[in-house]
Amino acid sequence: MDTEEVEQRIEAGIEDADASVTLPRVPDEDHEDAHFAAVVVSPAFENKTLVEQHQMVYDALGEAMTTDIHALEMKTFTPEEYRNRD
C-alpha cells in the first residue's frame, strides 16, 4: 500500500475529508514495515473527541490497519482548527 492509496481510503471513508499522507521515515526494505503519517482535515470531526476522530480514520482504513499498515501517526483537525494551528 502506498501513500496515495492510504489518502484515498481516508478521504472515501470520512465525509469531506482532505488527507495528506507521508512516509515519516525511510522504509526498511528487509522488513517492509509500512509506517505512515497522516494529517486529516474534515468537518466530520466537529464535536468529536480526539479518540473518536482517530477511530474514524482507523475505520476508514478498515482491514488495511491489520494487513498493510504497520503504524500510523496521525493528526486530525476540523477545518477551523487547521486554519488556526500554530
UniProtKB/TrEMBL annotation:
Q: Which Gene3D superfamilies match?
A: BolA-like (3.30.300.90)
Pfam families the UniProt entry points to: BolA
Q: PANTHER family in the record, alphabetically?
A: BOLA TRANSCRIPTION REGULATOR, BOLA-LIKE PROTEIN 1
Q: Which family does it belong to?
A: Belongs to the BolA/IbaG family.
* Name of the featured protein: Transcriptional regulator, BolA protein family
Q: Which organism is it from?
A: Halobellus clavatus
